[in-house]
C-alpha cells in the first residue's frame, strides 16, 4: 500500500500550529524522501523515444501526468479494448479521444506523495517509457491534539464507502476546463503536509488535500461538473458529513467535515454549484473544509487542477 488508507483522507485541523520546512537532512522522515540531484538523474536516465507521450517526464510527488498514445501505435485488433497503463503499481484505464493525429487514448496518472524520487517505468502493453519522480519538498506540520481526537477511528462501513467512491472509474469525462476552488475561505493547510502530532511523526500519513478555514455554514461549491457518488450525513466518525463527485475517467473530488449537504446521490452537478456548507463534523476541532482530488484512488495536488485544464 502506498499509504495507510485509514489516514488517507483525514483532513482535520483548521489551525496550523506551526509549519516546518524539511530543509535539513536530519529532518527528513525516511530514506524515501532523500533527494537525488536532478542533474545527476538526467545525465544517466534521459527519457527514451516512445509512442507514449507524457505531459511531463519530471513529475513531482503528488503531481498528475497526462499520458496519450495514438490508436495506431497500440496495434489493437479491431474492436479490442486498449491495455491498461501500468504506473507505480497502479493500473489506469485508457479512454479514447479524437486527437489532431487521429484516434487516440489518454489516461491521467498520479505520482503518490510518498513515492521515492528517481526513475520509474510507465508501460502500456508492449510500449514503455520512463519518468523521473522529483521531490516536492512538502513541509511538516506540528500540532497538538487532545487524546479524544488523536486517533483515526471510523464508523462501521465508513472506510468501505469512502474507498468505493474514491475508486469510481466511469467512461464520460464531465469537465473541459480548469477546476475551481470549492470555497472562498483562506487556505489553512496545504497538500502533502506530513504531520508531527503531540511530538510524534505519523509514519504513513500525509495531508491528502487542501484545508479551507471557512466559517461554520459558509458555502461549498463543486470544483467541476460531475455526478454525486457519495452524500453521507450523520454516519462517518472520521470524515464527518461527506460528498464525493465523480468527474469521470477516474477523477473524483471529496468534500469532508461538512455541516450540511445540499445534493443527493446520483445527482448531476455543475462547476460552482452549491453542494453544502462548511462544518466541523467528524474528526475536526474547528470548522473547515477538507478538499481532495483523487485520480484512480491516488491523491493529487488540487492546485494543479486549478492551474491547468487537463
Ligand atoms: Zn485536511
Any chance you could write out the topology, listing elements then pairs?
Elements: H1 5-8, E1 18-20, H2 38-44, E2 53-54, E3 64-70, E4 85-87, E5 90-92, E6 95-99, E7 102-110, E8 118-124, E9 127-133, E10 140-143, H3 158-166, E11 187-189, E12 194-197, E13 200-201, E14 210-212, E15 219-221, E16 226-232, E17 241-248, E18 251-261, E19 268-269, E20 274-278, E21 289-295, E22 298-300, H4 302-307
Parallel strand pairs: 10-12
Antiparallel strand pairs: 1-10, 2-3, 3-7, 4-5, 4-8, 6-7, 8-9, 11-14, 12-13, 14-21, 15-20, 16-17, 16-19, 17-18, 18-20, 18-21, 21-22
The chain binds zinc ion.
Counting DSSP H or I runs of 4 or more residues, the number of helices is 4
Low-confidence blocks of residues:
1-46
Percentage of residues assigned to helices: under 10%
**Bound compounds:** zinc ion
N-to-C order of helices and strands:
HEHEEEEEEEEEHEEEEEEEEEEEEH
Q: Any idea how many domains?
A: 2
CATH architecture name of the largest domain: Distorted Sandwich
Full CATH superfamily name of the largest domain: Glucose Permease (Domain IIA)
What overall form do the CA principal axes indicate? globular
What's the count of strands? 22
Structural class: mainly beta
Question: Mean pLDDT, as a whole number?
Answer: 86
Amino acid at each position: 500500500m502506498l499509504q495507510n488508507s485509514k489516514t488517507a483522507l483525514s483532513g482535520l485541523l483548521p489551525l496550523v500550529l506551526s509549519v516546518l520546512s524539511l530543509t535539513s537532512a536530519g529532518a527528513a522522515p525516511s530514506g524515501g524522501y532523500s533527494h537525488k540531484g536532478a542533474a545527476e538523474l538526467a545525465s544517466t536516465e534521459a527519457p527514451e523515444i516512445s509512442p507514449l507521450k507524457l505531459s511531463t517526464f519530471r513529475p513531482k510527488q503528488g503531481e498528475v501526468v497526462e499520458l496519450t498514445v495514438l490508436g495506431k501505435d497500440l496495434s489493437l485488433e479491431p474492436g479490442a479494448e486498449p491495455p491498461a497503463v501500468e504506473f507505480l503499481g497502479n493500473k489506469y484505464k485508457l479512454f479514447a479521444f479524437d486527437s489532431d493525429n487521429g484516434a487516440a487514448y489518454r489516461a491521467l496518472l498520479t505520482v503518490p506523495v510518498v513515492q521515492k524520487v528517481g526513475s520509474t517505468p510507465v508501460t502500456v502493453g508492449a510500449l514503455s517509457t520512463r519518468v523521473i519522480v522529483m521531490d516536492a519538498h512538502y513541509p511538516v506540520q506540528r500540532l497538538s491534539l487532545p487524546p479524544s481526537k488523536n486517533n483515526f477511528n471510523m464508523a462501521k462501513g465508513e472506510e468501505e464507502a469512502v474507498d468505493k467512491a474514491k475508486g469510481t472509474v466511469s467512461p464520460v469525462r464531465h469537465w473541459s476546463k480548469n477546476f475551481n476552488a470549492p470555497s472562498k475561505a483562506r487556505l489553512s493547510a496545504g497538500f502533502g503536509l506530513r504531520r508531527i502530532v503531540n511530538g510524534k511523526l505519523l509514519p504513513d500519513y500525509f495531508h491528502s488535500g487542501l484545508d479551507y478555514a471557512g466559517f461554520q455554514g459558509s458555502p461549498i461549491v463543486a470544483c467541476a461538473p460531475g455526478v454525486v457518488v457519495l452524500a453521507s450525513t450523520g454516519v462517518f466518525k472520521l470524515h464527518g458529513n461527506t460528498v464525493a463527485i465523480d468527474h469521470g475517467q477516474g477523477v473524483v473530488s471529496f468534500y469532508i467535515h461538512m455541516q450540511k449537504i445540499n445534493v443527493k446521490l446520483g445527482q448531476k452537478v455543475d462547476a460552482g454549484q452549491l453542494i453544502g456548507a462548511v462544518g466541523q463534523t467528524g474528526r475536526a476541532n474547528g470548522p473547515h473544509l477538507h478538499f481532495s482530488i483523487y485520480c484512480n484512488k491516488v491523491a493529487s495536488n488540487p492546485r494543479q487542477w486549478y492551474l491547468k485544464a487537463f
